[in-house]
Amino acid sequence: MNSSDQDAYAELQDWQRKMQQRPSMLNRLARRLQARLNALLPEKVHAAITTAIKQMVRGVLFGSGYITRRPLADATLQAREVAVRTSVRNYRNTAAAEGAVTGAGGFLLGLADFPLLLGIKLKLLYDVAALYGHDVQDYTERLYLLHIFQLAFSSQHTRNEVYQRLANWETYRHTLPQDVNEFDWRTFQQEYRDYIDLAKMAQLVPVIGAAVGAVANYRLLEQLGTTAMNCYRMRYFNTDSSV
Asked: Name one Pfam family in it (predicted).
């Protein structure tokens, strides 16, 4: 293992420890607070967000519009990660700009940010998968992306469970349903909504919405990029070879 791979492996181990932590008292309190905040939003807002998430995410499994590049072959881990970091930076900046525009536009444009941001996140995951050499034409690879997404934007309780699936992916993938309707969409949607609501609800407030939208989107894309990198590092080091 060269020095670059050793650094990546050390970062991976630190990240793995965080993913396997038990929910803290603060995590549990935040979960209760989120439930109360959800109750304050009108039902039509909840319905709009849920529908957008469901349709966009299901589109990952069937649509080809997100597929923009061939899997990168015959590259070192270091070369892959240089390209991945560049891609994350570009998508992060795009998301921040989008959040600022929709946040400045008031309540209706603020609502539009949810599906727009979701599309940016999914596009990033497709690019990261290809840069690590994985072919997302494979149905199970697309489900892997959904699990990365779920890991990045879930409570610590759900995160522990999803992490175990990803850590043992080569075994778990053989148990995946052939029918996508059997995927646990309800948990996926609710965890995502609960996670981002605390970060994004202030974006709907006039005056401060633009600043909140830019910062929140920037951080959410940064977190997704970090999660994706470490998930693919797990697969790289588990096979003890490059893709």
From this structure: EcsC
Q: At what angle do helices 209-239 and 185-200 cross, to 10 degrees?
A: 130
| Total number of domains in the chain | 1
Q: Which amino acid is residue 184, in one-letter code?
A: D
Mean pLDDT of 182-194: 69
What is the DSSP secondary-structure string of 153-175?
TS-HHHHHHHHHHHHTHHHHGGG
Measured CA to CA in angstroms, residue 43 lies from 9, 186, 215, 232, 234 at distances of 45, 16, 27, 38, 40
Q: Does the structure show a pLDDT above 60 at 151?
A: yes
User: What's the sign of the alpha-carbon dihedral 176, 180, 184, 188?
Assistant: positive
Q: Which of 51, 101, 60, 57 is nearest to 210 (CA)?
A: 101
pLDDT tens digits, residue range 12-59? 999 999 998 876 666 666 666 666 766 776 777 767 766 766 776 777
SS3 of 77, please? Answer: helix
